[in-house]
Amino acid sequence: MAPNQDQLYDSVPPIPTYDEAVASGSAWHHDVAISPVDHSHHTTEAEAEGQSLLTHSRHAFESTSTNHSHAQGRRPRGYRPPTVETDDDSSLFSSDGDSDSDDEREADQVRREMQELEIDDSDVHGRNQSSWGKRIGLSLPQWRWKWRWRLPTLRRRSVGGSGSDNAAHERAPEGEEGSGSSWLSRARPLSLPKFGSTALFLLVGRTMALFIIMGFFYLLFASDLWSDMARRMGSQMFDPESIRIHVQSSVNARRIRTHLEHFTSYAHLAGTAGDYALMEDTEMLFAKYGLEDVRRDVFEVYLNYPTAQGRGVEIWEEGGKMAWAAQLEEEEAGERSSGRQTFAFHGHSKSGDVQGRLIYANYGSKKDFQALKDRGIDTNGAIVLVRHYGPQEDLALKVKTAEEAGAIGCITFTDPSDNGFVKGTEAPKGRFLPADGVQRGAVSLTSWVVGDPLTPGWGSKDNLPRMKVSEARGLVKIPSIPLAWRAAQGLLQRLKGCGQLVPEEWVGGVPDVGEWWTGNGSSPVVRLKNEQDEVEKQPIWNVYGRIAGIEQEEKKVIIGNHRDSWAFGAADPHSGTAIMLEIIRVLGDVVARGWRPLRTIEFASWDASEYNLMGSTEYVEHNDEALREDALAYINLGKAVSGRTFHAAGSPVFRKLLLQVLNRVSDPHYNATLRERWDERKGRIEGLGVDSDYVAFQDIVGTSSLDLHFDGDRFPHRSSYENFEWMDNVGDPGFVYHALLGQVLGLLILELADRPVMPFDMVAYADDLTRWVKGLKSWAQKRPDAAAKRVSFDALELAAQDVGKSVREFGNWESNWESSILSAGGWEPSGLGRQRCEYNARMAQFETDLLDLDGIPGRTQFKHVVFGPQAWSRNPDAHFPGIRDAIESGNATLAQLTVDKVASIMKQAANNLVK
């Protein structure tokens, strides 16, 4: 590491001249002896090396100049002025002229060797603090290492004659011949010292010292000890506030734009050549920007891919003649560096070629299908046409609902009243889908089985068991395909006069349809063809890299973003990819300057997220025990920037920290901080659904998770129009909000990974639990079924109260810790440091303790008793999914048992906090 002005080491004092060293009354001779007063002075200096954690200080960047000026007026430790007899090393072996005895020469040699080996221990005696403690001022230990880089001199002693004669011999040029013999012939032979003599003792001692020194250097340079020591020492030079300022000011919108342009330059479905190429780029950039232990992780999962001639939507007349065919593909949305646009298809859709009568089913919710049934419209054997969005936004649940209603195929489309010209200007000049825009997506049942549907509950590694595709509960059983509204228009027009006129709320914005009809047995026959390539063990590639922590290396804060996309993925996922890479670059730069966090920061690029969140889920399932033990927090950047309004969804523990960070980040378009904009719209941390890669962390291993994004009106999501040009011109011109989210992310990472006490808002969690229990009770009492009204929530309410009491008692420790640090002038004994680490671990463990390891009945992957999806709903604010599922089943006994079990788990989590 190159030295810089931030280093806290003592400045090297100037070396005195010979005259200064021997002159009487000089400043150097004035400090030869270290008196008790000097000891006191050094104690004061040691105490000044740290600073209090509880105050913002500039000492870290001022200490260098302070130490240097102090060093100018004192003698360097370990310095010994030369003697006035001679400065010739050979004199150490010569006679003083008064005595030629071996004993006197040996005694003189011993005295001189002891002077050579003299060790300065002023630093040890000058400190009155325990060697097991550390300062807290910079949020890192303030250790200093003072070495006296001086070794004993090893010299060959003459066998006979004076030292001057020896010196004369040694100065003779090699090969020179004299009158009687050569220089070599005049050299006296060496002889071993006598047994029991002081010389033998010195020889043995020197040999042992040599081996010790060699071992010491091996330990430093041939092992990891030196790099670890240097890492710890270098971390002391940075003040936390200076790091915050540096990270925030270093986020570069231009670099983010460059990364986004590259990652959106060609299509890259999971498992394809484009995806593999971006994986290699990600791996290279992780290493280039300074992450350690960069590696790829391969899983083998079930994927499907569309074929050029394998898909079709057609209307057939009587007699087997095709009357109409839908245009499936979008117009080319711009030149790409390689490859072509992705075909329009549904991930994890069922292969098939089916024909049936066409039925329009609005948004495809259970309520919509029930309305058709009530009107006498038979959906058995039908091909149903449904809209995206609506009260049931989950694409897979739309298809599953159609399947359970007896349909044999499902066609989805985006109505312009939801995302199109009815809402505003279309892409590429505006935010909304044009007439040919197709929204792709997966129809795997994420709310039922997340990750690889063939390995629910364990990682998809080679040689591990796999289910058959036909047995996978997480896959739908009917084929489906997406269309643009221009293609759906042809279908809707041909339904006129078939069945019944639809309710007014079912009428969409597709132009030139006229009357909207439901369809029935007299509807035209539609052929839905969806023949595809299916790969049961397709490799996918996650990429990981980290910055190791110096205090709790095993504990980690994880930041993740997926890399695969349905098309080019400018907003989802690569706005997050570009931001994550920029933060890696900024943090890597700080690490290169010597900074280290207390806890490990790990970055992950997930693959196959668009297919049922596979990459992140398989990682979590393969490492579930380790993550439950050591994962402190997970921050997700799935769909990071698509507008100007900041949103956060996640665990309440992030509330206080998030608001502090938002206070530091200013929005130039509104001349206000993000906190002011947040308060203006009465923002809150929203609930987590099943939309991105936080699902496995929050719901399977209980890692407190946070999803961050700027959004606004709808945009051409998952279409070929969600490309770099759209983001550059419409989504975020100038990449202002990319840079703002980068600042938010960087500051969050610093606080979570480097604050001595984790900044979790446990009181906010307790308060929200109480509020959520009341909301659950109110929801149950408003239901029309009698079974829900028989369920008692008393145990759950008492458990929420217990959590509140325990959280407040738990928080007292932090107050006591702060008082101890203040009273000790910023010094933290090692025992208190261990308690602090245990306190942090227990704080993070609270979320994990809210897991029911048996899982929700029928959906055992989902183990969190508070967060998670319901079986038939993606409402992120519907907490306690297991209880809600049980109540909706109509089984009052099961519902009561579930309430009591959840209450017991909450009570135990509260007890674990204060045990």
From TrEMBL:
Keywords for this protein: Membrane, Transmembrane, Transmembrane helix
UniProt feature, compositional bias: Basic and acidic residues: 33-45
Gene Ontology terms, MF aspect: carboxypeptidase activity
Top-level lineage group: Eukaryota
Residue ranges annotated for the Transferrin receptor-like dimerisation domain, each copy included: 791-913
Keyword Membrane: yes
Start and end residues of each PA domain: 354-442
Biased segments, Acidic residues type: 97-106
Transmembrane segments: 198-221
Gene3D superfamilies per UniProt: 3.50.30.30, Transferrin receptor-like, dimerisation domain, Zn peptidases
Region (Disordered): 33-110, 157-183
Domain Peptidase M28: 542-712
Family note: Belongs to the peptidase M28 family. M28B subfamily.
Protein known as: Glutamate carboxypeptidase
